[in-house]
Design brief:
By secondary structure, the chain is mostly beta strands. The chain has a domain at 12-78. The protein is built from 5 helices and 30 strands. The protein has helices spanning 22-27, 34-44, 55-78, 143-149, 379-382; strands spanning 12-13, 19-20, 81-85, 92-98, 105-110, 115-119, 124-129, 136-142, 153-158, 162-167, 172-178, 183-188, 196-201, 205-210, 215-221, 227-232, 257-262, 266-271, 277-282, 288-293, 301-306, 310-315, 320-326, 332-337, 351-356, 359-364, 373-376, 385-392, 402-408, 413-416. The strands form 8 sheets. It has a 4-stranded antiparallel sheet with strand order 3-30-29-28, with no helix packed on it. A hairpin with a 4-residue loop joins strand 5 (105-110) and strand 6. The longest helix has 24 residues, at 55-78. This is WD-40 repeat protein. Keywords: Repeat, WD repeat. WD repeats lie at residues 85-128, 129-176, 183-219, 254-280, 281-324.
Length: 417
């Protein structure tokens, strides 16, 4: 891998000449609250909060920059192949992760028509579900079933016109949603503990389900071609509830929206309450393969990846493109905000990640000039890279436990860490 230049952290001294190791301080970000680290850092440098109104924001943004680059730098410089899961026999379409009851699992969907569950700690497959009759396009872990019923459930969508729910602890299928045509990507709501499920389909529509009642709530129509990717807007709250239950009463009337990416080369934003599209983003020259909402200070942005080989950042309020990132040689299948950052209500990452058949790239959203890093696979040996998931695994005696899990065209799932 080529090593592009990146900002390095260095030691500084306080007013008494005492050396301050910023690396040591920033390492603690992974295990302690961000506020504690900021207070310690500011105290060590004899800086007082409140001397100007926005100083706290300046400090947080300044340290955030170092956190982003430091974490990514550490991962990139030390990462190695630590595991390969073998079982699928075809293209890996999607990967998700769960740590129910402190047990760590990866679930995967494949064009071999199976959904599989892997035990991370024991490095083995523990379940395989084979009732789909066509390609499995997406898999997602259901936090709603776990927090409400203590069930370990994953959800999968398929070209066979179904969305299926699987209890992988008891090895059984729970429920099926039938659609008139093949289903692409699915997404659980970040609010109400993941009670709502959104899907994009080959009939150009988006559907929203209530998984508590197993009922179809709304159908969103407006795209002129296949809807491939969907996302639901983040929790409209200042409280960090770690995706636990947040009862808001009804889904409509709370400002929640759905974002969809289509083969018609547009991205649309939909009001959940009236099912109407109120923003249309145009600029991509190919199919929209992945869309994601930002959070915290980036909550008014959309990130997208396209078969035109570009990654783009959009402003929801102005309906305009903010940045375009070029550098992939193949279509961009997946995009992610803040791939290696712990969720924190005061923390806003500037790093994004994108994946195509030829490489996985890391970018700084403040500049579209250069990639921070790229990871290039061995296409001859493994086939193309199909999907990826950035995961923070729990490991003993490890300062950093960031892992990059990615699926390959030939069916392998590899883990870098």
């Amino acid at each position: 891998m080529n090593q592009p230049s990146i900002l390095k952290l260095v030691s500084h001294s306080d007013n008494n000449g005492k050396s301050i190791d910023l690396k040591h301080i920033l390492t603690k970000v992974l295990d302690n609250s961000f506020e504690i680290i900021i207070k310690y850092w500011v105290r060590a440098l004899h800086i007082k909060f409140g001397w100007i109104r926005e100083f706290d924001k300046i400090i947080i943004n300044y340290v955030s920059l170092f956190c982003d680059l430091f974490i990514l730098d550490v991962f990139y410089s030390s990462a190695k192949l630590i595991n390969t899961f073998i079982g699928h026999t075809d293209y890996i379409s999607d990967i998700d992760y769960s740590n129910f009851d402190n047990d760590q699992f990866i679930c995967s969907g494949s064009y071999d028509q199976t959904v599989r569950v892997w035990d991370v700690d024991n490095n083995k497959q523990i379940q395989s579900f084979n009732r789909h009759q066509n390609y499995v396009n997406c898999v997602k872990v259901s936090s709603y079933h776990y927090h409400n019923y203590r069930k370990n459930v994953i959800c999968s969508s398929s070209l066979d016109k179904t969305i299926r729910f699987w209890d992988f602890k008891h090895n059984k299928q729970l429920q099926i949603f039938d659609q008139p045509i093949g289903v692409n990507k699915i997404e659980f709501s970040p609010f109400n503990g993941g009670r709502y499920l959104c899907s994009g389909s080959y009939d150009n529509n988006i559907r929203l389900y209530d998984i508590e009642t197993y009922k179809l709530l709304y159908v969103f129509s407006g795209h002129n071609n296949v809807v491939y990717s969907v996302a639901i807007s983040p929790l409209q709250s200042n409280d960090d509830n770690d995706n636990k239950m947040n009862i808001i009463g009804v889904i409509g009337g709370n400002g929640y929206t759905i974002c969809s990416g289509s083969y018609d080369k547009t991205i649309r934003i939909w009001d959940i309450e009236d099912t109407k599209s109120f923003n249309v983003f145009k600029g991509h020259q190919g199919w929209i393969m992945s869309v994601k909402y930002g959070s915290n200070e980036l909550r008014n942005t959309i990130l997208s990846g396209s078969s035109d080989k570009s990654v783009r950042l959009w402003d929801i309020r102005s309906c305009k493109q903010i940045q375009i990132f070029n550098g992939h040689l193949g279509g961009v299948m997946y995009v992610e905000y803040s791939p290696f950052v712990i969720k924190n209500k005061n923390y806003n990452s500037n790093v994004i990640c994108s994946g195509s058949s030829d490489k996985i790239c890391f970018w700084d959203i403040r500049s579209n000039k250069n990639k921070l890093y790229e990871i290039i696979g061995d296409i001859e040996e493994d086939g193309e890279t199909c999907c990826f998931k950035c995961i923070r695994w729990k490991k003993k005696n490890a300062a950093y436990d960031m892992n990059l899990c990615y699926g390959l065209h030939k069916g392998q799932i590899r883990v870098l860490g």
